[in-house]
Design goal:
The complex is a heterodimer.
Chain A (H helix, E strand, L loop, with lengths): L11 E3 L2 E3 L3 E4 L9 H8 L3 E5 L21 E5 L6 H13 L5 E4 L12 H13 L3 E6 L3 H10 L5 E2 L13 H10 L5 E3 L5 H9 L4 E4 L1 H4 L4 H21 L17 H4 L2
Parallel strand pairs in A: 3-4, 3-10, 4-5, 6-7, 7-8, 9-10
Antiparallel strand pairs in A: 1-2
Helix pairs in contact in A: 1-8, 2-3, 3-4, 6-8
Chain B lengths: L1 H11 L10 H9 L5 H8 L7 H16 L2 E11 L24 H12 L5 E6 L8 H11 L5 E5 L5 H9 L4 E7 L3 H7 L8 H5 L1 H7 L4 E6 L6 H18 L4 E5 L19 H14 L4 E4 L5 H7 L6 E3 L28 H10 L3 E3 L6 H7 L1
Parallel strand pairs in B: 1-2, 1-8, 1-9, 2-3, 3-4, 4-5, 5-6, 6-7, 7-8
Helix pairs in contact in B: 2-3, 3-11, 3-12, 4-12, 5-6, 11-12
Classes of the chains: A alpha/beta, B alpha/beta.
Chain lengths: ~260, ~375
Amino acid sequence: MTKDLPTHHDPLVIADTPLRSRLLVGTGKFSSHDIVPEVIKESGSQIVTMALRRVDWKNPQDNILNYLPEHTVLLPNTSGARNAEEAIRIARVARAAGCGNWVKIEVVQDQRYLMPDNFETVKATEQLVKEGFTVLPYMSPDLSTAMRLAEAGAAAIMPLGAPIGSNRGLKTKELIRILIAEISLPIIVDAGIGRPSEATEAMEMGAAAVLVNTAIATAENPVAMAKAFRLAVEAGRLAYLAGPGARQLQAEASSPLTGFLRENA
Amino acid sequence: MFYDHYAAWQEKLKSYPLTSFQESDVLRALARDRLDPPDLLALLSPAAEPYLETMAQKAHRLTVQNFGKTISLFTPLYLANFCSNQCVYCSFNTKNTIVRRKLDLDEVEAEGQAIAATGLQHLLLLTGESRLQSGPEYIQACLERLRPHFASLGIEVYPLEEEEYRRLYEAGLDAFTMFQEVYDEVIYATVHPAGPKRNHRYRLEAPERACRAGIPSINIGALLGLGEWRTEAFFTALHAESLLQSYPGIELALSVPRLRPHAGHFQPFTSPVTDANLVQVILAYRLYLPRVGITLSTRESPRLREALLPLGITKMSAGSLTSVGGYTGDGDSGSAQFEIADERPVDAIVAMLRTKGYQPAFVDWVNVRVREALG
């Protein structure tokens, strides 16, 4: 009876674009571009992110864009940008180079942890939205920043689960939970997710999607791991839609404290 | 300022003789996520030598996690070898009788085109120290000629003033390399007997001037074999950490050059840095600074370069020449700075990396100013 699963009528909509898949994947850190098409296929992903700085325009064999399936939504990121100005310029170069209209803003002013600079990210988002980009900002989960990004016209918000590339899991869970509750845009957990079970956890709590790169690219078998993440994201989404029952800390056999209310009934 | 930090640690090192570290110090350092300077000393100490494999396993994991299985490729282009210094370990020493030469701008562009034709898009420009023959204006003119052909342009030249770095940055410079050669001030004075390079502190602070001028990519290193390698590696890593603290936006890499055969008769004061020593340095760097790049040049042999690859290396030079010019195969090139050990052409390095399960990255940078100008 799988046709009745609620996920079948549950597209992820970003900037009026309906998408089947709620798993976004990255193209960095793979041992070879040759494996990327298979990874994308098994992940089921329809949005693929790549660092503009790593796109090799001069060597077609090394140009990652030549390895992506048709109809993939390209999500070039501004990796390398240290401030809003650099992110804006990288986004413009990406669009001029034919990478489309979507951009993931990454502004990092700290190379030790690669933590996003929320202040500069808001500035870049404001400007790029004005220039007609579909902007997905990567950020440290913080409600007031998320509200400003939403007000600036971001198409989705991408809070980190843990420092990028750390595979540490959903360390910022409580902060992301607040964003999910308060922000009406899709919340896409980006960075830090190291295991499929953590992707499930993010989806169960109501994240709209997750973005995974390092955990797939550095797996022993990236293709199998891509599939594992697809299933994990689907499972988490299904659980979210199914509405998990409230967790009980102890059995509720009787009402020792309020039983007296019924004694005289 | 790194100098204050450096001076303070010179003093503190007296309380941390490298021979005082024990197995337990090494094990503690290995168990930590974020290491402090005493942990770094423990990893560089003789007590860590039995733990190279354990260190290597952790270093490999950290490298794959942070950089994936990709190696950025670059190549050097020597623009000129005129020099006013007398570095005893360098062929360009003003006392050496070598073929001195400087490329004119047309030759620079032709060499650049020959390099670009191999697929390489990161180029490092080098000169000897001669403000007369290869001053900042000449370097700037070279950058402007080469800019359209490359994704990233770097320089490895004598120390400049902050304002000079700023002008080069504005002319399209992306990357800066400077080896302190030797952090030990006494040995520094001995191996640099004459010329402007005698000023240890001016060279030590060149990376800070480059950072202040806005140059985004910084590469430093000690020339291993001049001073005692354990303390030299220690100060190199502290230098890197200090730069990252003061200028958190930079992309930093460390080089691990070992002394190579060269013109002249210099014999090092310390025993040679063995392969095992070099491995220990690379591993200690990776464990101490997991996100910092590590650059490996063609100074090392093909066999060793391949073995070092998984230990933490993120950048490699390929198809390198250390002579002035020579990539076009036309005309006479000037004498080489040192002998290279890995003479394989770019396509052989690329094939080797692919066989080893690594992706060669010809490009890992976008200079937005240039790309905007090109439309």
